[in-house]
Amino acid sequence: MSERAAIAELAERMARAAGGIQRERYETEFAVRSKSAAIDLVTEVDLACERLLVETLRDERPDDAILAEEGSGDDREGATWRWVIDPLDGTMNFAHGYPRFCVSIGVQHLRETQVAAVYDPLLDELFAAQLAAGATRNGRPIRVSDQKELGRSLLSTGFAYDVHVSEDDNLASFARFAKLARGLRRDGSAALDLCYVACGRFDAFWERKLHPWDVCAGNLIVSEAGGRNSDFSGAPAVGDGRETLASNGHLHTRMLEVLGESFAG
After folding, report:
1. Are 170 and 198 in contact (CB under 8 A)?
2. Can you name the residues that pair with 136 across neighbouring β-strands?
3. Residue 163: pLDDT above 90?
4. Are 201 and 187 a contacting pair, CB within 8 Å?
5. Is residue 68 within 8 Å of 53, Cβ to Cβ?
6. What number is the average pLDDT over the span 115-142?
7. What is the CATH number of the domain that holds 181?
8. Is the pLDDT score of 265 beyond 60?
9. Which of 141, 161, 188 is the last residue of a domain?
């Protein structure tokens, strides 16, 4: 087995293990607190999942860098392999008992994403990809949709945690797309939104002010399923999450046009 294949196997095993914690603690009592804003939540389940993931990596891949949302990893310079982890994407959903959340793990080799695993523990769906090897859901190949008309599309988006206080928000774009698309969803898990673009459930997804752990795995899954990722200028996505547009490719140019119109006022 190649090193990358072994890493992919480990990522999937870890995602399922953390997802098991989420499934076990779903709709139980747990501690919740706010971070950067009142709507930016972290639960003891986030922390338990991250602890499991980080401790596993320290045991099995001690030389690798770890960028984890809750800050317990060691994102050191110079490591060949780097794990980019969101231990519980969709924390607000989880805290409210809304069944849309997941574990997201992306793995980079020299800062190029090579491996991805996103696990939804309630639906028992594991989305996975390796660079230049395709994307799968529970081991079966997936592909983006063939929808070419924005008016027949189902889109997804989200809002940043500073939406209550910042005028630099997503509301104008949301309003424009709501008038143009067949449907628009805001489900609260960017990682799952990206996976849903990859498997054709959504035709496109856009969001602002995300972070690397929100998009690292999902972006690779989209591209390996035949989709396209970019920022809002159309430039290739750099993976920081600040501007994220993922689509089936057919809708990408039109999505960029509408985004440009909404920011122009």
Report:
1. no
2. 128, 141
3. no
4. no
5. yes
6. 98
7. 3.40.190.80
8. no
9. 141
Domain count along the chain = 2
Range of the domain at 222: 150-264
**What whole-number distance in Å separates Cα of residue 257 and Cα of residue 232?**
9
- What CATH number is associated with residue 123? 3.30.540.10
For residue 126, list its beta bridge partners. 119
Q: Which of 27-36, 54-63, 104-113, 243-252 has the lowest mean pLDDT?
A: 27-36
CA–CA distances in Å: residue 65 to residues 50, 84, 116, 182: 14, 9, 16, 42
What is the tens place of the pLDDT at every residue in 170-205?
A: 889 999 999 999 999 999 999 999 999 999 999 999
Q: Are residues 110 and 84 in the same domain?
A: yes
Same domain, 113 and 18: yes
Cα separation, 6 vs 212, whole angstroms: 23
- 25 & 135 share domain: yes
Residues 6+ apart with CB under 8 A from 2: none
